[in-house]
Structures are given as C-alpha cells and as structure tokens.
Specification:
This is Molybdopterin-guanine dinucleotide biosynthesis protein B. The protein contains 4 helices and 8 strands. It has about 170 residues and is an alpha/beta fold.
C-alpha cells in the first residue's frame, strides 16, 4: 500500500481569502513536483452544474444523481445524506497533498487566515494550528503569524511541516 496524501486545512472566516490563497499555493506546490488535490466543504447547498447542460437537465428532471465523463476527467453530482470529507479523500489516493478548504473546527493540520477588514482573531480549533496567515501585525492570542502575501514562505512552511509530520 502506498503512502497516504498529506492533508492540510486552509481555514478562516467567510470571505477571508481561502480560495484565493489555495489558487496561489497550488501552482507553487505543483512547480515543486507535488500532485495536489483540493476538497471544499460548503455549508450551504451549492449548485454544482450549469443551467442548460445535459447533466443539469437530468437532475432537473428528477435523477437523484448524474455523472459525465470523458477520456480525461469526470464529474458526479449525487444527492446523499451525511457525506463528509473522508469519502472524498479516498478519491485522491495518488495525491501528495490534499488542501481542504474550510474545516476550521477539524483536527487536521491547518493554516488560518485572519485578514484586515474581515476578522481580527482566530476562530479555529487550536489543535494542529500551524500558524496564522495575516496582513495584521498583532492578533489576540499567542500565535505564529505569517505574512499572508508571502506565498513562497507559506509554501515552504507547508512543505517543512509536511516533512516533519511524516516522520
């Protein structure tokens, strides 16, 4: 059996910049040779298909699930109760790193974004909190604050933690 992917949550309040950060981290991690996957939790019911597509029409007609695939990719939309991230983690066994967007109350290793004009204190579970990514100089509590805009440093911090986590 091969090694399991390293799981890292990118957490923070709503609109703190989690997606923006993840889209900056992915190319940096890929440049370093890592295979990266992402899993996002949405606390609301999301629309995963576009109006007018065949799969949208299938769901609209009453199918509880629909799938579309080509030679290179697939997408499944399925109604199922009580699904959590562990179901999706299993779908990416070949990944080196899986970035989990959200999961602030989880026990996963995490980096939390605390950003000016959005939040001023940590809202995450302190367990496995690697550091706070921020554009603020001081945050309530005793935290390792990392410059939110220094993507190269954040990438290195992730890789250093990943290597120590594997040992």
């Amino acid at each position: 059996m091969g090694k399991k992917p390293f799981l890292l949550a990118i957490s923070g309040c709503k609109n703190s910049g989690k997606t923006t950060l993840i889209t900056k981290l992915i190319p940096k991690l890929c440049e370093k040779g890592y295979k990266v996957a992402t899993i996002k939790h949405d606390g609301h019911d999301f629309q995963g298909d576009e109006v007018g597509t065949d799969t949208y029409e299938h769901k609209k007609a009453g199918a509880y699930g629909t799938a579309i695939f080509s030679n290179n990719k697939f997408m499944i939309i399925k109604e199922e109760k009580s699904v959590d991230e562990t179901y999706f983690i299993k779908l990416f066994p070949e990944a080196d790193i899986i970035l989990l967007e959200g999961f602030k109350a989880s026990d996963y290793p995490k980096l939390e974004i605390v950003r000016k004009g959005n939040s001023s204190k940590s809202v995450c579970s302190k367990k496995n909190l690697i550091g706070i990514l921020s554009d603020l100089k001081v945050i309530d509590g005793n935290y390792n604050i990392i410059d939110l805009n220094n993507i190269d440093f954040i990438t290195e911090k992730i890789l250093d933690y990943m290597k120590s986590y594997e040992q």
